[in-house]
């Protein structure tokens, strides 16, 4: 369907079709249009003249005509050596957009548009990330949720990371503890050298990328085919504060995870026990710790065996008795004897 629409609109922003110009003009005058109005003119989304409204995804908001003009002018300079014939039509387009710009007051709307921008589609997300990378001069902060980093995930942004390293930009990355067991991440960090510092936590927030504390990128849907580009100073500062607090709690990747102090129970099983005590289901625990549900249940089974619990209810009691529920311990609580606790030969897992 999308492909068919694209064939019917073989043009650029400098020479919109009649239907596209009518819908875009209406969007500029009204501030937004229903998404259904743009279905007959997919060119407006493809050319980024319309993009989803962050407050209501059923509506589309227009890119400011001034921004369109700037984009066209930049593209024209890039292509002028190859196609002089487009200069005339581009100039005419500038005049049309300039006329639209005089019809509305865009001062406040333009501020909102640049503060929060919805990036619809992987190509637009990648383009925005590349643009932010080129402008970055000082630091990049990232939060990478999930478990072991897959090779394609690490290589996807490798060109950006290498470009940043070449300019002396410092990078700090937060991962879950599970990521420590991925050889791909270790290879990536070895390649990047001192340019990247990594730390890990039991669990982290959703994906976050911050450039120079001025622009941030966060997912806008579950499958990460949409993203928000945030430039509002208050929003960005808030996200920086969240990152810095997580960073202080995290453990450097070069340091070992702390011992639980309970024989036969690993650090990961301690984290699972605390989440079980909070009443979370297996699937939720697995997602938060970046492991599979199957692996999570295997750890729960080992916890039950180590703590001598015959049921989930009894396991909850044993977790509390062992002080694995995260609750404050009273004096002498560390000497609690856990019935059925296994000896040195018990499997701990990772």
From TrEMBL:
Disordered as annotated region, ranges: 328-350
Source taxon at top rank: Bacteria
Any Pfam family matching the protein: GerE
SMART domains tied to this protein: HTH_LUXR
Every HTH luxR-type domain range: 258-323
PROSITE patterns the UniProt entry points to: HTH_LUXR_2
Biased segments, Low complexity type: 330-341
PANTHER family tied to this protein: HTH-TYPE TRANSCRIPTIONAL REGULATOR TRMBL2
Listed name of the protein: LuxR C-terminal-related transcriptional regulator
């Amino acid at each position: 369907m999308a492909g068919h629409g694209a064939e019917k609109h073989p043009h650029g922003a400098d020479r919109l079709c009649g239907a596209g110009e009518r819908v875009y003009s209406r969007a500029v005058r009204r501030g937004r249009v229903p998404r259904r109005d743009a279905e007959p003119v997919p060119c407006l989304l493809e050319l980024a003249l319309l993009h989803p409204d962050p407050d209501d995804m059923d509506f589309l908001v227009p890119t400011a005509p001034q921004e369109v003009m700037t984009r066209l002018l930049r593209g024209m300079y890039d292509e002028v050596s190859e196609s002089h014939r487009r200069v005339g039509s581009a100039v005419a387009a500038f005049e049309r957009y300039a006329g639209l710009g005089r019809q509305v007051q865009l001062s406040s709307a333009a501020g909102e548009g640049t503060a929060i921008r919805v990036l619809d589609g992987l190509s637009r997300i990648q383009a925005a990330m590349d643009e932010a990378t080129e402008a970055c001069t000082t630091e990049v902060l990232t939060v990478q949720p999930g478990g072991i980093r897959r090779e394609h995930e690490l290589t996807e942004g490798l060109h950006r990371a290498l470009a940043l390293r070449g300019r002396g930009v410092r990078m700090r990355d937060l991962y879950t503890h599970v990521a420590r067991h991925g050889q791909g991440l270790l290879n990536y960090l070895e390649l990047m050298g001192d340019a990247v510092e990594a730390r890990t936590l039991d669990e982290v927030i959703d994906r976050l990328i911050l450039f120079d504390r001025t622009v941030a990128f966060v997912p806008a849907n579950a499958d990460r085919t949409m993203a928000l580009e945030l430039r509002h100073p208050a929003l960005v500062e808030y996200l920086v504060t969240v990152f810095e607090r997580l960073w202080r709690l995290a453990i450097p990747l070069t340091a070992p995870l702390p011992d639980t102090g309970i024989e036969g129970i690993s650090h990961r099983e301690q984290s699972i026990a605390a989440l079980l005590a909070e009443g979370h289901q297996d699937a939720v625990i697995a997602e938060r710790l970046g492991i599979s549900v199957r692996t999570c249940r295997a750890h729960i089974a080992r916890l039950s065996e180590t703590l001598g619990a015959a049921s989930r209810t009894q396991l909850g009691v044993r977790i509390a008795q062992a002080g694995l529920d995260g609750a404050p311990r009273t004096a002498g609580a560390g000497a609690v004897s856990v019935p059925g606790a296994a000896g040195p030969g018990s499997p701990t897992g990772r």
